[in-house]
Each structure stands twice: as C-alpha cells, then as structure tokens.
Specification:
Distance between the termini: 27 Å
CATH class of the largest domain: Alpha Beta
Mean pLDDT: 93
Helix content: 25-40%
Low-confidence stretches: none
Largest sheet: 13 strands, mixed
Number of strands: 13
Number of domains: 2
Radius of gyration: 21 Å
Structural class: alpha+beta
Amino acid sequence: MSGGAPDERTGIRPAVPAELPAIGELARAALTLDAPEAPEIVSRLSNPPEGRDAAALVTPGLDGVVFVSSSATEGVGHVDLLAVHPSAQGRGTGRALVAAAERWLRERGAREARLAGNPPCYAWPGIDVRYTPAVCLAESLGYERYRTAWNMTADLTGYLPGDRTDAGAGDDLARLASAGVALHSAPPGARSEVIAFVREHWNDAWAWEVAQAAGCHYATRQGEILGFAAWGARPRWFGPMGTAEAARGLGVGGVLLRRCLEEQAAAGQRSTQIGWVGPVRFYAKAVGARVERVFWLYRRSLA
C-alpha cells in the first residue's frame, strides 16, 4: 500500500499504511453486520497474495474507502470492500468511490468489474443482501447480478473443553485410530507439508489460505496426509477444508472440522461462519450449521 496523487475533482487518493487503523475504525462504523472483525478484514485486504495488484482508495476526510484488486482472470478486476461512514452516507460518496475503483481497474487493463470476492484474499463472496443500500447502489450503477453464494453459521456453544455436547465425538476418534489415522495440529510456520498437499490436490488459492490461517489441523495415515481443515484465513471464518480421495468415508473431515471449531471457541468466538459453502448437507449434519448469510455477486463491463 502506497500513497499517490489525489483525483483533482474528488480528492480520492490511495491510502498510506499509517492510515490503516483509521480505515479499520471507519469500516467498523460502516459495516454494521461485520463490526467486530471489520478492522481485521481491513488488515487482511491490505496484505494480499504476492503478485496481486491492489489498493485502498480513500476520501479526503477518511470517511470513505474502497478496496480494489486485479484478478488472476485476465481482464477482470474486483471491488473488494466499500465502506462509507454513517455520517457521510447519502451524499454520493459511495458512488464516487466506485467510480474511482473503476478508473483504477481500467488503468490496469480490466474490461470487467466485479462486486464479488477475489479469492483467496477477500472480505465476502459478494454483497450481503442485508446491506440493502449497497445492493441499490450496485444496481443503480448498472451492475448485473450473476451469481448467488451463501455462508453457513455454526454455533460454538459446547465446543470448549469439558463442554462438548457431541456424544459421538469419542466414537469418531476411536474409529480413526483403529483405521491407523493420526491427527495433528499445524502451527503457523510449520505447515509446508500441508500447504504442498493442498496445492497438489486443490489449488494455489487454498494453499495461500492455509498459510495465512490462524489454525490448521490435518490427518495422516502411514505418513501420508489424508485431509486438512483451517480457520481464520478470512478473519473469524472457518475454511478451507478438504479430504483426499483415499480418506473418503472415514469421517476425517468431520473430526478435523470439529477440532477447528474447538479452537475458535477457545479464542472467544460464540459462532463461526463457514464461507462460500458448497456441501450444505455435510456441514448441517456434521455440526448443525445453518444457511444464514446470502450474497449477491455483481459485475459490469468497463468497455
């Protein structure tokens, strides 16, 4: 993140690192559905994967910010986060910030702008439908809705040591042990083998998330990694998680999932969001998760 010349008409300019704490508090005030982790989201977006072109553009009074980034998909750019302080809303600030983001993207060759998550470093999959003013702004600017995504929420009550309410947890552990499966924690800085496993079986995006995660657990059999689960790559959320084909049917995924939820509970969380969910039935059955947050993904041509 580095500064730059402000726009002559609006004064919108790239933020500088020293402004991050103030931007975090701005986000906390604006993002009413995400206030507790808003500064952490700002911190995450300010440290994107190596090679990603990204910026935070701010208004002269630091009462509005837009995070913008280039995509690995050629010709595509993302508006990652838009926040306007409540005291500055209703004055066209959000519209001006989106216009500034689009100019930034055009200058870097983007032909399409998306109001959607840019994995692996993103705030949300899209616009939470409950942020109604953001939905209205997107549609008034000509953005079209092209996809719907959702998060699931898992209640962490009962996941602290001694409070477990899952009577089958011990049976699951015994079954894995009898199958020769061992469970491990991978602290930050000691995840190279897990990261390599994730990259080989899935993709670089998940590998980056595992490297950034607050917590990570994995399972092995005869020294071979069978599956992994991580949390905190996107602050306070669970994921990603995956199991190799050789581990299907053993119940590895559910056990690793619960280990992560235990850590999140120990960190003081009362619930966790499982981001950008595919297998709804798995999470509903494994930990009683429910579909809760729904996101609309938007895009428009910059041609």
